[in-house]
């Protein structure tokens, strides 16, 4: 899928044909607040459930969302993964929230860290 960034007016391509719906895949995701990186994890991940219990990420209270954010490693760019962060253009790094209809969907515009394959949680 091709996306035109409304900030820099450049077009970039993403691998996905459609945005992912986190509820259908039992996954949680957070965007970096500084770059286009996305972190994705299973809602059954033991590190996650030890923090918040058996609660789907899209149903977390504000308190539990902050707990999850504090336990995630920082992004390699120095930014933090935040539930309120939005997708960013991989070319100009500016936020582009308009490419998603709501916060339960995600689209990979940059690097993706997969919690099932990489260490995303602080020790």
Describe this structure in words.
- With 123 residues, the protein is α+β, with helices and mostly antiparallel strands.
- It has one domain (2-114).
- The protein has three helices and eight strands.
- The radius of gyration is 14 Å and the shape is globular.
- The N and C termini lie far apart (37 Å).
- The model has no long low-confidence stretch (mean pLDDT 92).
Write the SSE topology.
Elements: E1 2-4, E2 11-13, E3 20-21, H1 22-25, E4 27-32, E5 38-42, H2 46-52, H3 62-71, E6 81-82, E7 105-106, E8 112-114
Parallel strand pairs: 5-8
Antiparallel strand pairs: 1-2, 3-7, 4-5, 4-6
Any idea what the shape is? globular
How many whole angstroms does the radius of gyration measure?
A: 14 Å
What does the average pLDDT come to?
92
Major sheet:
4 strands, mixed
What structural class do the secondary elements suggest? alpha+beta
Strand residue content? 15-25%
Please tag this protein with its features.
single chain; 123 residues; alpha+beta; four-stranded mixed β-sheet; 3 helices; 8 strands; 21% strand
In short:
The chain has about 120 residues and is an alpha+beta fold. Helix content is about 15%, strand content about 20%.
């Amino acid at each position: 899928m091709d996306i035109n960034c409304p900030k820099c007016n450049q077009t970039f391509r993403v691998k996905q044909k459609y945005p992912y719906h986190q509820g259908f895949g039992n996954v949680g995701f957070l965007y970096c607040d500084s770059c286009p990186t996305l972190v994705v994890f299973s809602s059954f991940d033991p590190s996650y459930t030890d923090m918040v219990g058996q609660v789907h990420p899209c149903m977390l209270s504000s308190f539990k969302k902050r707990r999850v954010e504090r336990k995630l490693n920082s992004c390699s760019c120095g930014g933090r993964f935040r539930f309120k962060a939005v997708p960013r253009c991989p070319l100009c790094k500016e936020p582009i929230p308009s490419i998603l209809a709501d916060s339960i969907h995600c689209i990979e515009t940059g690097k993706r860290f997969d919690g099932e394959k990489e260490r995303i949680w602080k020790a």
